[in-house]
Amino acid sequence: MTTPPAGYKQTDVGVIPEDWEISSVASIASHAPNSIVGGPFGSDLVSADYTRSGVPVIRGQNMGDKFVSGEFVYVSNTKAKDLSANCAVPSDIIFTQRGTLGQIALIPEGQYEKYLVSQSQMKLSVDTGRYDPTYLYYYFSSPTGQRQIIDSAIQTGVPHTNLGILKAYKVPVPKDKKQQKAIAAALGDVDEMIAALEALITKKRGIKQGVMQELLAASPRTEKKRLGLVLRVGHGRSQNGIEASDGAYPILASGGQIGLADAYLYDRPSVLIGRKGTIDRPQYVDTPFWTIDTLFYTVINEPNVPKYLFYRF
């Protein structure tokens, strides 16, 4: 095992700073009753209990990217009071208990005073005097936290976990809550930057689609031809005998590159069209390549422009 660098120590969850501690979920929970709890028993919450308004119920589809969100079903305030042990409030952390394990979400501030946890979720109320819930959310959303959740799951039937397993999860935590909050704030800034970039990409894609629609639209100067007069379709071949780990040419399938070859099947610009699998995403290649039998390649007749035909496809 590699010796950790100065100022760090090796733990069950990896290398962490020496002044951090490893805490279990049980030890970071609030001391209030029902701080770690699952949803009600099946017969205690059925679809007949749902109403059009009231207290929202957290189900799988409400486990958003960071916060509980989306379209809710509701129960009456009376029903929620009867199931008060299974309710969650802002700053609580919600974990999926069965099905899509690894889903984590925070209860947001300023939307509802309380929520009811469904049978497929579990709630953790954090001791907020010592621990920052957002930091804990980011830890359990990290590769290390996700691996801990998946590795500890019960795999018989539908993958699931339970409250005992949840309580035993280990969390590396800075002892200073200010440091926890600083880390969470930095990661939140990254989330905002990614969201802004994704919004920009979506906007640019929309612009591109509009430009393509206009530039590729038929006009009085557009000449229609049968595809067979513009190009010839070539069939991919098995990669047996030409695949090489140090090959110079990509081996392409309908889903993308799957290996390297020491020979090529075609060496001119070409539009590649899926024959099996991903058939609705044409690819453009202008360097030598090999395609397997799930992917057609095209030999494009002069004077047609391969890149134009790619956009047409």
Write up this protein:
This protein has 313 residues and is α+β, with helices and mostly antiparallel strands. It is built from eight helices and 20 strands. It has a five-stranded mixed beta sheet. It has a four-stranded antiparallel beta sheet with strand order 4-12-9-10, with helices on one face. A hairpin with a 7-residue loop joins β9 (93-96) and β10. The radius of gyration is 27 Å and the shape is elongated. The chain starts with 7 loop residues before the first strand and ends with a helix. The relative contact order is 0.10.
Characterize this entry briefly.
With 313 residues, this protein is of the alpha+beta class. The chain is built from eight helices and 20 strands. It is elongated and about 75 Å long.
Q: What class do helices, strands and sheet pairing give?
A: alpha+beta
The major beta sheet can be summarized as: 5 strands, mixed
What is the N-to-C succession of helices and strands? Answer: EEEHEEEEHEEEEEHHHEHHEEEEEEEH
Question: Which residues sit in consecutive blocks of at least 5 with pLDDT less than 50?
Answer: none
Amount of helix: 25-40%
Shape: elongated
N-to-C span: 53 Å
Biggest sheet: strands side by side, in what order?
A: 5-7-6-11-8
Mean pLDDT across residues: 93
- Tally of separate helices: 8
**Strand runs, count:** 20
Strand content: 15-25%
Rg of Cα set: 27 Å
